[in-house]
Specification:
The protein is an all-alpha fold. Helices cover 65% and strands 3% of the residues.
Length: 292
């Protein structure tokens, strides 16, 4: 291997290991001629569904954006916004939401760069020269996610998190519900563009979480695995609920399932709109115009 190739390889390995950031030029814009996207109620449904998994284990009621959070919980959200997001006020929030819905967060940028490097040099070549297990695991993870999602990348990691920071900011008083609806709209439009159902959208968000945290996706004790378990439980619960209600509507005898159905009713009272895939097609998607 000549010096030039060695230098290129070393630079690629360094990039994959450290996730160095560079400029990312993808820009999106919505048509200026379309009517407002959708009503406040629909946007609220998007927010409650987008935050369901992170709130499931916190035992929060999701019937509103903030569920009238206690002062203690609001304080926790305020600390999380400040320490993890550098959000201390409404202007900071608007800046972060704009970043997440345009160029993307740091992880989306570094993932795209690293995947491009792996595709250019080749995964096997990089693995051959990787010096640590951590580096090899990182290369394998990026290659796996790139093959799984293709051009979509891990955009769901950014778009779903818009609902998180927006709802937390309502909770701590940085913005009101009206502005929350407005800030959510660009993320919703892009989620509709890239995904057709909650399974894929939330799965993409969780894969982005695995990339960001550099977690072992097969380790049952990680928060990534726990969140995936919750998502799978939501899928199973949703399917069962729909089947029982369909049988009931058709006049079938579901007496033996009444207790379970009552449990599901309580579950859906707490988690409205959970995995409601009609949100991805109703109202119709607004066309996006992409420029290089």
């Amino acid at each position: 291997m000549n010096i030039t190739k060695k230098m290129k390889l070393c630079m690629a390995l360094l990039l994959v290991a450290t996730m160095t950031l560079a400029n990312f030029n993808t820009v999106f814009a919505t048509s200026e001629t379309v009517d407002p996207y959708c009503g406040k109620e629909t946007i609220r449904h998007w927010m409650t569904a987008s935050t369901a998994i992170i709130n499931y284990r916190r035992d929060r009621d999701l019937r509103s954006i903030t569920a009238e959070d206690s002062p203690g919980r609001s304080l926790i959200f305020g600390v999380a916004l400040a320490q993890s997001w550098d959000i201390h006020n409404a202007d900071d929030l608007r800046r972060q939401v704009t970043r997440l819905t345009t160029t993307g967060g740091n992880q989306r940028i570094s993932f795209a760069e690293s995947a491009a490097i792996i595709n250019y040099i080749g995964k096997e070549t990089l693995l051959e020269y990787a010096t640590t297990t951590t580096m090899r695991n990182r290369i394998n993870l990026i290659a796996y996610l790139d093959e799984k999602w293709g051009e979509t990348g891990i955009i769901g990691w950014d778009l779903i998190r818009v609902a998180h920071v927006v709802s937390w900011s309502v909770s701590v008083g940085y913005i009101d519900n009206e502005e929350a609806y407005s800030l959510m709209e660009p993320a919703i439009i892009q989620l509709q563009y890239h995904f057709s159902n909650w399974d894929d959208a939330l799965d993409n968000w969780l894969d982005g979480y695995a990339y960001w945290s550099n977690m072992d996706m097969n380790n049952p004790s990680t928060s990534f695995t726990r969140r995936h378990t919750d998502l799978n439980n939501f899928r199973t619960t949703s399917d069962l609920y729909v089947r029982l209600r369909t049988l009931e509507a058709a006049g079938a005898n579901i007496e033996s399932h009444i207790e379970r159905l009552n449990e599901l009713d309580r579950f859906y009272y707490r988690f409205p709109n959970l995995l409601d895939n009609s949100l991805f097609s109703n109202p119709p998607i607004i066309d996006l115009q992409f420029t290089d």
